[in-house]
Amino acid sequence: MAPDPARLSTFTRDGLTFELDDAGPLGGETVVLLHGFPTDRTSWHRMAPLLHAAGLRTLAPDQRGYSPCARPPGRAAYRHEELLADVLALLDAAGVERAHLVGHDWGGAVAWLLAANHPDRVASVTALSTPHPAALSRAWKSDRGQRLRSWYVAAFQVPWAPERVLGALFNSVVVGTGMPPEDARRYAAHLAHGGALAGPMGWYRASSSSNVPAHRVSVPATYVWGSRDSFLGRGAAELTREHVRGAYSFVELDDNHWLPERRPEECAAAVIARVRDAGDAGDADDADAGKNPARG
Predict the structure, then answer these.
(1) What is the C-alpha to C-alpha distance for residues 78 and 46, in angstroms, rounded to an integer?
(2) Residue 61: beta bridge partners?
(3) pTM score, whole prediction
């Protein structure tokens, strides 16, 4: 029998070192937790214990631009290609062939794109708040309301100024969007100083030059959306179903954008259900394959 894998506290890629939390049963199925903007891996601290209690191992990294030793300069360093490659490097470092992905905000976009382009490494995807990228693009083109919700994306293209303004007003701005104050203070201590926001802003600035296609997703998927989300509207939420070919669940909560912080129990329940359903489907496929060895 192979030995249990060791716990990880960091992983590396292309000279960058990413910090992460590796917790839960080592023998459990692996769930990768991908945070969004402007948070960090501690955004999962309410959800993760619930996943561990269900027998799941979680890997929660501080993503590119958020880990102090993984903040490369330049816009190109934050293209989608790099963000996806970071997650694949994490799976390789952990010795995990296929993982369940959970992402919020920008982490949700990464989860959708990785599932679409690397289904061999993804067992399932659960996106919190963030619609499938192609659905969001369609909504942005056809829905003036979504364009108004996304005003900040254009504002963040301006160099230097957005990170300086947000750094100075971090608590008041983020709490004003509905984030719990105690969480905003913790994220501010991590990001609202020096040049720490330049990397996170790079995700927005590099998006238009990225070349990762937003294919339809074939792996089992769940989308959890808050009906009072200030940034991501109903149009994109409802279009997401059209970009999933596999099993799909949509969970609507009466809340705002910050679901991991505000609704951890419901989000964890959605993740656990998706992981279990994906496992049941895999067991059924294995049984069918055993009955018909020519099936492929």
Answers:
(1) 28
(2) 20
(3) 0.93
